[in-house]
Amino acid sequence: MEIKPPMLLSTTVAERQPWIYNSWVDGLFVLFPPFAALVAIWLFPAAFQLSGGVNLAWWVILVLFIDVSHVYSTIYRTYFDRDTFRKRSALFISVPIIAWLAGVLAYLAGPLVFWRILAYMAVYHFVRQQYGFLRIYSRKEKVAGFSKTIDSITIYAATIYPLLYWHLRGPRVFNWFVENDFYYISGARVADFLQYPYIAILLLYVINTVRETIVARTFNVPKHVLVLGTVLSWYFGIIYFNGDLTFTLLNVISHGIPYMALIWAHGRKQYYRPAQGSRFLQLLFSNKGILLFIGLTMLFAYVEEGLWDGFVWREHLQFFSLFSHLPAYDDNYILAFIIPFLAIPQVTHYVLDGFIWKIKNDQYNWKENTIGA
Questions:
Q1: What sign for the dihedral angle of Cα 300, 302, 305, 310?
Q2: pLDDT at position 361, please?
Q3: pTM, whole model, 2 decimals?
Q4: Which of 59, 163, 236, 372 is the least buried, fewest Cβ under 10 Å from its Cβ?
Q5: How far apart are CA 274 and CA 52, in angstroms?
Q6: How far apart are CA 113 and CA 131, in angstroms?
Q7: Gap between the Cα atoms of 44 and 52, Å rounded
Q8: What's the burial of 8, exposed, middle or buried (CB within 10 Å: 0-12/13-18/19+)?
Q9: What pLDDT, in 10s, does the model give residues 192-236?
Q10: How far is residue 15's CA from residue 30's CA, in Å, rounded to a whole number?
């Protein structure tokens, strides 16, 4: 089926709801993923609510082909975009180099130092993505400043409260990257107390939403669905369930799929219909190019994880047989150079993501080409 470009949407629909691309693309790939994950967990508890770890099949689907793959979708917006790369070449070249050098120093200070820094960079990245989507879906709203403040406090509460609960209650059966990559503080009573301001913030958001709906006679569907999905996925993924697979499913699907959808939506508007940019990007964001878009990210992810498994983990060699003959190192001085090198794509993704999401200064043309529907 031919995907209708955003300019073919009716003016009333475009004005009524601030979609990034259109209602069904946003709904299916940006807003629906956390709800789909929750429904799957509730319908199939025997499959998802397990006390054990993530088996190979789910690891390949969730970690390799969604989580790691979404990291590489950033290259379509940065390194593969000739105009953007030319304007920001110093940034794009220096970030991977600095990431590796800083990673080496951190690992030499202690392996756990490196993994903790990486874990908290990831946490910041995940939290800020939800705030970024909130701002995108709020871009057309004409509301008072306190309403925007309530929105911001709510999205941060939805993500930070579960993280505080995790830190105060102590280790769960899952980790972000490796065991003890978070600093845990003994504070069960504080964790219990924090639920009250958390609930109060959510109630304030609901009350303000009702007030805005009555006054403005509009209801921002994508923004409110995004907030609800964020609240549910973070609460159930971290607090309610205590399972490695449930956490991975909710965490990865709610983050990776929407990010790739946003990159695709931008590329579709930037290159396909205007026929701008390189022929490769025009092909990539065509109807048939979606397979290439996904396939390339999966290929890059497979190679990276194959190197990780061959040199470091040795956990999934049955899947990464091409890398099974690589030498496995356990010397920390050697790993201090290898592990930060393998982490370069991930760290670069975290850093550059802080630039390409910017809307206020719009240095990367997001407002004009990606969210101007």
A1: negative
A2: 56
A3: 0.90
A4: 372
A5: 50
A6: 27
A7: 16
A8: exposed
A9: 999 999 999 999 999 999 999 998 888 999 999 999 999 999 999
A10: 19
